[in-house]
Amino acid sequence: MKQLFQHSATTHGVTVRVAVNFLPEQSRIEAGKWFWVYHIRIENGSDQTLQLLSRHWRITDGHGAVNLVDGEGVVGETPVLAPGHSHDYVSGCPLATAHGSMEGYYTFRIHAGAREGDMIRVAIPHFALAAPATAG
Questions:
Q1: Among 78, 122, 126, 133, which is most buried by a count of CB atoms within 10 Å?
Q2: How far apart are CA 7 and CA 30, in angstroms?
Q3: Are 16 and 6 in contact (CB under 8 A)?
Q4: Which residues of 37-71 are buried (b: 16+ CB within 10 A; e: fewer)?
Q5: Domains in the chain, start-ordered, CATH in brackets?
Q6: Three-state DSSP class for 30?
Q7: Looking at the whole model, is its pTM more than 0.90?
Q8: Percent of the chain with pLDDT strictly greater than 90
Q9: Are 27 and 99 in contact (CB under 8 A)?
């Protein structure tokens, strides 16, 4: 099945694409828990080899409450991306409201060349988390 990426952002030649889907089978709406899964593709369009070191997420729920999440790598990995290569991963986000949003950035280290060791920040595009309307 071909994934349809709905959002993208490019920083320093690195493109981050996001596809997000609401998962009713993982949600417990009667208990106030909604769940989304998101697929991210990171494409290195730069001329540098990069290693993804960390992620920073800003997750906002439908009441405006903000949760900041920082961590090493993505889903337990710190991939190295040569020029022209990409990395895909899938993760999920629970919320206590039927709507919200996510955005953030990755921190990469330049892995080789004249700028080896330099850090760059790559934007993760803002995307909405929106559950379909449910019958009351």
A1: 122
A2: 30
A3: no
A4: ebbbbbbbebebbbebebbebebbbbeeeeeeeee
A5: 7-130 (2.60.40.1470)
A6: helix
A7: yes
A8: 89
A9: no
List of residues 6+ apart from 41 with CB closer than 8 A: 3, 5, 16, 17, 86, 87, 88
Q: What is the pLDDT of residues 6-37, one digit of tens each?
A: 999 999 999 999 999 999 999 999 999 999 99
Residues forming a β-bridge with 132: none
Where are any strands of DSSP class E within the chain?
A: 7-11, 14-22, 34-44, 50-61, 66-72, 80-81, 86-95, 99-110, 119-130
Tokens 């991963």 locate to 89
Task: Please say whether the dihedral angle defined by the alpha carbons of residues 6, 19, 75 and 56, taken in this order, is positive or negative.
Answer: positive
CA distance 24 to 106: 29
- The tokens of 100 are what? 């919200």
